[in-house]
Amino acid sequence: SIAGHIDDVYEGLNALLAADGVDASRVGIMGFSRGGLLTLQAATERPGTFSAIVAMAPASAKGLLATVLGDTDQIDAPVLVLVSENDLFQDDHVTLTQNVVGALEAEDKHVEHILYGPFGDDGHERFFVVGDYWGDIIAFLSPHL
Predict the structure, then answer these.
(1) How do residues 109-144 score in pLDDT, each as one tens digit?
(2) 3-state helix, strand and coil shares in percent for the chain, rounded to the nearest 5
(3) How many CB atoms within 10 Å of residue 141?
(4) What is the Cα–Cα distance from 94 to 121, expressed in whole angstroms?
(5) Which of 42, 113, 129, 144 is most open to solvent, judged by the fewest CB atoms within 10 Å of its CB?
(6) pLDDT at 51 over 90
(7) For residue 35, what pLDDT is reported?
(8) Distance between terminal CA atoms of the chain?
């Protein structure tokens, strides 16, 4: 169940923002799969908090993603969405990613999308470790953070 997970995200975010030396005007958020969904949810529920958003192969979580995408008008930071073209095993993350990009574009938001080539037998595994995509994330985050 995903119940309560967004509360964990906010607990971590609040701790970060309360920490000495943190520049609250330069905070990014990034997540993979369920974390990608939670990243988008946090961005819709806490506008003005993030300077950059990265969602890697966001999960649907039994339709929660569709609900979150109904609130993309609240997102006020640039978004990078990543997925592998063969990320189809657990769910069709390619289509889910296209839905995210489409919802953001419909609201005229700054969104960048990278569809990577296949990764092994299950494209979802591309993001299990820092890998070839990391340079794209750094290039996206650098001008915003």
Answers:
(1) 999 999 999 999 999 999 999 999 999 999 999 999
(2) 45, 15, 40
(3) 18
(4) 15
(5) 129
(6) yes
(7) 97
(8) 32
User: Which H or E element spans position 36?
Assistant: helix 34-45
Per DSSP, the three-state class of 60 is: coil
DSSP 27: -
At 3-19, the pLDDT tens digits run 899 999 999 999 999 99
Angle between helix 5-18 and 34-45 (nearest 10)? 60
DSSP SS3 for 8? helix
Beta bridge partners of 116: 84
Q: Which residue has the tokens 């330069």?
A: 26
Nearest 5°: the CA angle 32, 144, 116 is 40
